[in-house]
Design brief:
The chain is 72% helix and 2% strand. It has 191 residues and is mainly alpha-helical. The chain has a two-stranded antiparallel ribbon. Helix 3 packs antiparallel against helix 4 and helix 5 runs antiparallel to helix 6. The protein is globular.
Length: 191
């Protein structure tokens, strides 16, 4: 828990004035989402028009894109509620809304990052016809990534009871130690 002196620093205006990192977050989210949508569309078009059929790898690619679109959409709404602005400039309602939406967005981006790996494994299996031990690695690693992303998604929603305590300071909650949650998120996403 933060000391009272540390908490007071957020009650003063920031030294560098009022600015928001929200537009930068939106630019990054939507540029990557747009590029991904173009690449996935071209992949699906190629599989349908040139090859004549789609496969399970295409399903996981499209699924990842759906999660990415949902993530970018939720982040867009969160920025409109105040995500990216200094806490000093946010009303309590805006702070709660932006934090709540940011928490909702986390599992979406976890899954958007995990599903493409399974798609790549399926594609490589079709192209390379690997040996048994290679097949185990080929499917084992991305399956483990999907499982870790799913666990992180679940932990996001059960880290505090009740969950509302994460965004509403008036709600008394019991939470997992922050080190556990942060450690798991680093394990999922790397440094």
């Amino acid at each position: 828990m933060a000391s009272p002196a540390a908490a007071l620093q957020y009650m003063r205006p920031p030294a560098n004035g009022r600015h928001s990192t929200g537009p930068g977050m939106l630019a990054i989210a939507w540029i990557f989402t747009g590029v991904s949508a173009v690449v996935v569309s071209l992949k699906i078009w190629t599989r349908v028009k040139i090859i004549g059929h789609t496969g399970l790898d295409d399903f996981f690619t499209v699924l990842a894109l759906v999660f990415l679109l949902a993530f970018a959409s939720v982040i867009t709404v969160s920025v409109s509620k105040g995500l990216g602005q200094h806490i000093y400039y946010l009303t309590p309602a805006a702070l709660e809304a932006s934090v709540k939406l940011a928490i909702i967005s986390n599992p979406l981006v976890f899954m958007a990052g995990a599903w493409p790996n399974l798609s790549v494994a399926i594609s490589l299996n079709r192209i390379l016809v690997p040996r048994q031990w290679q097949l185990i690695l080929l499917y084992g690693i991305p399956t483990l990534q999907c499982i870790v992303a799913l666990i992180c998604s679940i932990i996001t929603y059960i880290q505090c009871v009740p969950l509302e305590g994460l965004w509403d300071p008036r709600v008394s909650q019991k939470c997992l130690p922050a080190e556990v949650v942060v450690g798991l998120l680093y394990f999922n996403g790397g440094e």
